[in-house]
Design brief:
Elements lengths: L5 E2 L4 E2 L5 E7 L6 E9 L5 E5 L6 E6 L5 E6 L4 E5 L4 E6 L6 E9 L5 E9 L2 E8 L5 E8 L5 E4 L5 E5 L5 E5 L4 E6 L7 E6 L5 E6 L4 E5 L7 H22 L5
Antiparallel strand pairs: 1-2, 3-4, 4-5, 6-7, 7-8, 8-9, 10-11, 11-12, 12-13, 14-15, 15-16, 16-17, 18-19, 19-20
Main location: endoplasmic reticulum
Keywords: Endoplasmic reticulum, ER-Golgi transport, Membrane, Protein transport, Repeat, Transmembrane, Transmembrane helix, Transport, WD repeat
Pfam families: WD40 (PF00400)
Length: 250
């Protein structure tokens, strides 16, 4: 993973990116051994080298300024690292038998940086929102009855995208955490990666079934709720008119 703007599906990253973070794999078993290393790019100087950071490393993500790195494993807490000092700033615990699956830094509408963590609960997949100053939970939102196998956030922070083992894609509005778009069976197999276009108008997804898909994100028209209110008022006015005409209401 490279700090800065990345697009793993397209194999593209900005040349201004300065840090590279990769989970280390055991050559004999091809399984993650939990070692975490952060390199400067392009010198490949190691600036963080933590053995057994997790039992296995499941997901990693840099903050937009490249100062923080979040990592999570197959069990236990999610860790937030300060890159400059190579220390753990905080460990975020899972509660009520939650299992962390994916993590992404982003920002909300007022510019505040937040951390999203997708979790598996008894009810399915949910997204936790954490304050990156106090490291307290801000909210928890149930998204799907399925688990969440992939997570990403648009560059403007407006949308979150979730993929499921059933091949579904769920796009969520980050402002109210309501589902914006649901694509059932977008893939035949588990969704493994998601990436938004720079303008946040399309979403690319790939699956273990070797398929790739691009989903267009349609803007929802505002004022729909106000239209229903206007229609209700008109209907009430018509009803009152007829009641008066027939002498029922004076």
């Amino acid at each position: 993973m490279v700090s800065g703007e990345t697009s793993p599906l397209l194999g593209h990253y900005r040349t201004s990116s300065t840090k590279l973070c990769l989970p280390r794999y055991d050559d004999s078993s091809s399984l993650q051994d939990g070692n975490l290393r952060v390199f400067k790019w392009p010198s490949m100087e190691i600036i963080l080298n933590e053995s057994k950071s997790h039992s296995t490393v499941k997901d990693l993500h840099f903050s937009s300024d490249g100062k923080l790195l979040v990592s999570l494993g197959s069990g236990g807490p999610c860790r937030v690292w300060d890159i400059s000092s190579s220390i753990v700033l905080t460990s975020l615990p899972n509660e009520n038998r939650e299992t962390f699956s994916c993590c992404r830094f982003s920002q909300i509408s007022d510019g505040t940086q937040v951390l999203y963590i997708a979790v598996v609960t008894d009810k399915g997949g949910s997204i936790l929102t954490w304050n990156t100053k106090t490291w307290e939970r801000m909210s928890s939102k149930h998204i799907t009855r399925d688990t969440i196998s992939a997570l990403n956030v648009s560059a403007d922070g407006k949308y979150l995208a979730c993929g499921t083992p059933s091949g579904d894609i769920v796009i969520v509005n980050s402002t109210n955490m309501r589902i914006h778009t649901m694509v059932k069976k977008a893939h035949l197999g588990i969704v493994t990666a998601l990436a938004f276009s720079p303008d946040s108008r399309t979403l690319a997804s790939i699956s273990l079934d070797s398929s790739a898909r691009v989903t267009k994100i349609e803007e929802k028209k505002e004022g729909g709720f106000n239209l229903w209110i206007a229609m209700f008022i008109i209907l009430v006015a018509i009803a009152i008119y007829f009641l008066k005409v027939h002498g029922i209401l004076k």
